[in-house]
Design brief:
The chain is of the alpha+beta class and 179 residues long. 35% of the residues lie in helices and 14% in strands. The strands form 3 sheets. It has a two-stranded parallel ribbon with strand order 1-2. It has a two-stranded antiparallel ribbon with strand order 3-4. A two-stranded antiparallel ribbon has the order 5-6. It is elongated and about 60 Å long.
């Protein structure tokens, strides 16, 4: 296998608690696949849910993986309880904690907004739950729809002072991706 065909797998747990058996299984599968093909196994900590994420849970995930013998080639540098150094950033592609990459992600979101490929949405969780309930009540499936009287400049201005999420603007027709 050439360098261009190197198998690279990754595991991206959320540091919201202990590593569970499903996460361990996924990490083991990704690690084994990379090892089988002489590739690399990357660990990325998906800590963008800042309300639920914690540094102690992240440290616990690293130690749990090390205890299981699942060593990552790239990811947060970790010294296990038995003194093994695991991970690091040999190719300079970090950081591996996603919250440390927010500036990069925010720049990409701004590009999507400028190109009108995404838009801010302001519905509350309660409003979305009510829409889902109405869809269930009519035996339909829930499909999010942006308001017909949506005003782009006003919505962009609201972003400055109102809670919102960013949604992709989907084309009306089919989406085809050549892979």
């Amino acid at each position: 296998m050439s360098a261009a065909q190197t198998v690279i797998t990754r595991f991206a747990p959320s540091p919201t608690g202990h590593l569970h058996v499903g996460g361990a299984r996924t990490a083991l599968f990704c690690w084994a696949l990379a090892r089988r093909h002489g590739g690399r196994f990357l660990l990325r900590i998906e800590d963008t849910d800042q309300v639920r994420s914690s540094s102690s849970a992240a440290a616990g995930l690293l130690e749990d993986l090390a205890w299981l013998g699942i060593e990552w080639d790239e990811g947060p540098l970790h010294v296990s309880q038995d003194g093994r150094r695991i991970g690091g950033d040999p190719r300079g592609v970090g950081p591996f904690f996603q919250a440390q990459r927010l500036e990069h992600y925010n720049a990409l979101v701004r590009q999507l907004l400028e190109r009108d490929q995404a838009y801010p949405a302001f519905e509350t969780p309660e409003e979305l739950a009510a829409q889902r309930a109405r869809a269930r009540g009519s035996r339909g499936s829930f499909r999010y729809r942006r308001s017909r009287d949506w005003d782009r400049p006003a919505a962009l201005a609201r972003m400055e002072h109102e809670a919102h999420v960013i949604r992709f603007r989907m084309p009306e027709g089919p989406v085809r991706i050549r892979d």
